[in-house]
Specification:
Number of helices: 2
Structural class: alpha+beta
Largest sheet: 3 strands, antiparallel
Helix content: 10-25%
Distance between the termini: 60 Å
Shape: elongated
Number of strands: 6
């Protein structure tokens, strides 16, 4: 008996949902009639022309080997000083190193650098770091600026500054 009463009450409540909505429909038609399209057409994408890749078995990120015919006299361009002592940190590439933090000792900033074996060491401005005659130029709270000296393949050398930054914590 209780079930029948609940069913009748539910039907009575739902029957009230079919009210008059002509005023809402009229308002919606009026707004649609007044709406104006203001979108502009998107231009067609540019035509893409592919170029076939020619693989010459050379690493695209390595400098080309110098050929004897193209060599420049060392006096014609800048040459680095080769009188520097190799350190354990200067034998590692920057890809093998990771900056973990920084600290200040005695007014001098130091960067905490993790080696591939997990050991963390300190470096300061002027220290050797990384290959290519890398020297620490500046230590900041989130990165280290390193000046490297690279051969251009023609007998001359170019200087560039790279940074070793703290990797973002993605976990």
């Amino acid at each position: 008996m209780m079930f029948r009463v609940c069913v009748w009450v539910l039907l009575f409540i739902l029957s009230g949902c079919q009210g008059e909505d002509s005023d809402i429909r009229h308002f919606m038609q009026q707004v649609r009639g007044q709406a104006a399209v203001t979108a502009t057409r998107i231009p067609p994408p540019p035509k893409y022309h592919s170029v076939a890749f020619v693989h010459d078995h050379r690493d695209p990120f390595a400098l080309p080997a110098a050929s004897g015919q193209q060599r420049v006299s060392p006096g014609d361009c800048w040459q680095p000083s080769f009188y520097w002592r190799e350190t354990p940190l200067s034998t590692l590439s920057l890809e093998q190193l990771a900056m973990k933090g920084s600290l200040t000792k005695g007014g001098q900033k130091h960067a905490l650098i993790a080696l591939p074996n997990g050991v963390v060491t300190q470096v300061a401005q002027g220290d050797r770091l990384g290959q290519h005659h890398g020297r620490v130029m500046a230590v900041n709270h989130d990165h280290v600026a390193i000046k490297q000296v690279l051969p251009d393949g023609l007998g001359c050398w170019q200087q560039r500054t790279v940074t070793l930054s703290i990797a973002p914590n993605l976990s």
